[in-house]
Specification:
Elements: E1 2-13, E2 16-28, E3 33-37, H1 44-51, E4 59-64, E5 67-68, H2 74-84, E6 85-88, H3 100-110, H4 115-128, H5 144-156, E7 162-166, H6 174-189, E8 193-197, H7 201-204, E9 209-214, E10 217-221
Parallel strand pairs: 3-8, 3-9, 6-7, 7-8
Antiparallel strand pairs: 1-2, 1-4, 4-5, 9-10
Helix pairs in contact: 3-4, 3-5
Length: 222
């Protein structure tokens, strides 16, 4: 499903170069549940953003579903993303001037799902995440944990084949965190490929493979 070859990411400031990722080679099969681990600054979030086509590497090759991503035009990347990828951001990235209901509906609008089906999918998701009472609120009226729940709900509402999650339970209390990880595990059993970045050993245990990053290098793959 995913094949990365010699992916490098460099930020340049004048004559100074900062290496974020160094020669990453990674293959992910359809249906895997993979965890990226490592200290802050190891490159986990940057790698997730490249996988989600939200950032581009400085060099290297990236194939997603047998397509060379780096050769695609922006419009083609956007189409591939909205059809197949759900992204859970560490900083939520909810749309401030849309309600919870409207935030959840947005990815379904992009997929051109008909109104009645959209309504049913949003209502089911609100119920599943126990946020029915929040549906008419705006993001700034929610706590951090509630925003995180909405962010996860938005990422999975369209049943994406690839879920990318950056510290998906970072702002949730332990019970909510377990519920989210159990949901990911169920989605994985149903066929979704999941790649999460986390510091949590307990979250990592839900997956079947751990990639450890350090200073932009893959240090361990087990």
């Amino acid at each position: 499903m995913i094949n990365l070859r010699d992916i490098t990411k460099i930020y340049t400031n004048g004559s100074q170069k900062t290496y974020i990722l160094r020669g990453i080679n990674l293959e992910v099969k359809r249906g895997e549940f993979l965890t990226l681990m490592g200290p802050s600054g190891a490159g986990k979030s940057t790698l997730l953003h490249i996988l989600g086509m939200l950032d581009s590497p400085t060099s290297g090759e990236y194939d997603l579903m047998d397509r060379s991503v780096l050769g695609l035009k922006e419009k083609q990347k956007a189409q591939l993303h909205k059809e197949h990828i759900g992204f859970v951001f560490q900083a939520y990235h909810l749309i401030d001037d849309l309600t919870v209901y409207e935030n959840l509906e947005t990815p379904l609008l992009y997929k051109k799902i008909k109104s009645a089906e959209r309504k049913s999918m949003v209502c089911d998701t609100l119920d599943r995440f126990q946020i029915v009472g929040k549906k008419d609120l705006f993001p700034n009226q929610l706590s951090g944990g509630q925003q995180q729940l909405v962010g996860v709900a938005r990422a999975v509402i369209g049943n994406p084949s690839l879920i990318l999650a950056d510290e998906p339970t970072g702002n949730l209390h332990s019970e909510q965190g377990i519920e989210i990880m159990e949901l990911f595990k169920r989605l994985n059993r149903e066929g979704a490929t999941i790649i999460q970045a986390t510091h949590s050993e307990s979250n990592a245990a839900y997956g079947d493979r751990i990639i450890k990053l350090l200073d932009g290098w893959v240090k361990e793959d087990k």
